[in-house]
Amino acid sequence: MDMRQRIAGLAGEMLAAAFPEAQGLPEDLAALLEVPPDPAMGDYAFPCFKLSKALRMGPPMIAKKLSESVQRPDIARVECVGGYLNFFFNRENFAREMLAAIMQAPEKWGSSGEGQGKTVCVEYSSINIAKRFHLGHLSTTVIGNSLKRIYDFLGWHTVSINYLGDWGTQFGKMICAYKKWGDKETVEKGGVDEMTKLYVRFNEEAKLDPALEDEGRAWFKKIEDGDEEALSIFHWFKDVTLRDAMKVYDVLGVQFDSYDGESVMAGKTDRVVRELEEKGLLKDSDGAKIVDLEPYDMPPYLILKSDGATLYATRDIAAAIYRKETYHFDQSLYIVAYQQDLHFKQLFQVLDLMGYDWAKDQCKHVAFGMVSYEGQAMATRTGHVVLLDELLSRAQEKALAIINEKSPNLDNKPEVARQVGVGAVVYATLQNNRIKDIDFWWDRALNFDGETGPYVQYTFARCCSVLRKAPEITAAPDYAALTDDEAQALLRLLSRFPEAVSEACLRNEPSIVTRATTEIAKAYNKYYYEHRILDDDPAATAARLQLTDAARQVIKTGLYLIGLDAPERM
Ligand code: ARG
């Protein structure tokens, strides 16, 4: 039941009744409808300003004439305020219809078939081999996971891609360092940390002995040429890195359909270079090959280095074409930090110049801001690095301490601590518009009372607890019990949840779901504090329990869509 559409339909009927001759009126009345900032001004407001020209009448007069026309049982009253026509629902009717609509398929509330038959590629996480999973990769992982869930929920076919950073001369250097100073057992045990140490040592020693650089390059050349030893060490580095990353993905509940990364695309760049050449797009620049993007006010896109090596850019061109040809996507999303803005603008422009006209419409860089940790910026080179697995372990420890204090008798405490601790981190990442920088603070993220993951989870558990304690009721719900302001506020938010999900998808902005879910949790708590749910009157109790159940389900869906679990007790 879409109240916006219904009010728009009603407004249309009113227009037809009041102005039967009118022409040139806006077609999409639903888009004109506004939600008044204060519910005392109505559930929806219909602004008459855009009708003024076609009807040759001032907006307040239009509103007045409209309000005289149609009467309907689901609308309690309409009021004219300035150029607005404010609609007030019939509260009892609204509660009945709304809850009937949700309870018909509660877990599907907010889902739709709008993506039916369409495919979206969502690239996220895209970690680099032999590097630790640090806070910088948290946002891409968490935003991407949420977007994948949102698109799925709206009926799209989704393909999730972890575009591994597994190509480049640094792997030659690392092998070189390993051959000189490393040993198998230490790397197996120390994992990525050990590889990082080797890489750091390589760079330090190379400052004193520049010949090392050549050796590193030679090892990379061996990887490229398929040398057996080089490849086996390289693959082993990859396995060790992914083994660590999988632990983080498991804790977060994140999965991928494909791990095809840069090394796979490196094998597909010949065709890209050939095509660019044939289409006359390649230019020489000091021995290197570039695509000139000056007409588009962008620096040149570097395709081949003077030694013939491909670049990040070259591989991204190959990857975009590969995804199109393999998955036939209708949209292809890249969840990557805003620092790479220019890179993606160039990429889509070059694809367009190559004649791939889908690139500009269908490929999107979904950018996000930086994460700092308790006021300190992240820096990968200087050593102040917050590691994601450590952050998640600490989150779980801290959540466990809080649970031990608040609910010492809870079953299954470690699992709930995982859900709550991880939830706190994920929620903090998806709380604000993705483009905003985030400063992560423990106190803020784990506060059970603020706008946090644990707060929303706690509200879900509260709904579960109310329903567990409820007696068996056979009486039919009396919806007149839900006409108070608090119940109506909650119902209004529940009714708008589907719009929030659609908009989150349209704008690739999970925070819209975070906010909608948090608002529902807040509204439920307000309702819970101001009303007795288990009343003496069974019919009133039945209605309040149904409202609780609807809130419970929609909060659960909202949490799921942003990647959080919903523990039933905490
Ligand atoms: N691996 C890169 C990094 O960690 C991100 C890759 C982004 N995706 C892409 N298609 N270029 O910075």
Q: Helix amount, in percent? A: 55-70%
Present as ligands are:
arginine
The CATH architecture of the domain at 401-561 is Orthogonal Bundle
Radius of gyration: 29 Å
In short:
The chain is α/β, with parallel strands linked by helices and 570 residues long. Helices cover 55% and strands 9% of the residues.
Question: How would you portray this structure in words?
Answer:
α22 (511-530) packs antiparallel against α23. Among the domains are: 3-89, Gyrase A, domain 2, CATH 3.30.1360; 168-259, no CATH class; 401-561, Orthogonal Bundle (Isoleucyl-tRNA Synthetase, Domain 1). By secondary structure, it is an alpha/beta fold. Helices cover 55% and strands 9% of the residues. The model has no long low-confidence stretch (mean pLDDT 94). Arginine is lined by residues 123, 126, 128, 163, 165, 316, 319, 334, 336.
Can you tag this structure with a few keywords?
9% strand, four-stranded parallel sheet, 12 strands, 55% helix, 23 helices, Isoleucyl-tRNA Synthetase, Domain 1, 570 residues, single chain, binds arginine, Gyrase A, domain 2, three-stranded antiparallel sheet, alpha/beta
Helix and strand layout, with pairings?
Elements: H1 3-18, H2 29-32, E1 44-47, H3 52-55, H4 59-67, E2 75-81, E3 84-89, H5 91-104, E4 119-123, H6 138-153, E5 157-161, H7 169-181, H8 184-190, H9 192-208, H10 211-225, H11 228-252, H12 262-266, H13 269-278, E6 282-285, E7 288-291, E8 301-304, H14 312-327, E9 331-335, H15 341-353, H16 358-362, E10 363-366, E11 371-373, H17 388-406, H18 413-430, E12 438-440, H19 442-446, H20 453-469, H21 485-506, H22 511-530, H23 538-561
Parallel strand pairs: 4-5, 4-9, 9-10, 11-12
Antiparallel strand pairs: 1-3, 2-3, 6-7, 7-8
Helix pairs in contact: 5-21, 7-9, 7-10, 8-9, 10-11, 13-14, 14-15, 17-18, 20-22, 20-23, 21-22, 21-23, 22-23
The structure holds arginine.
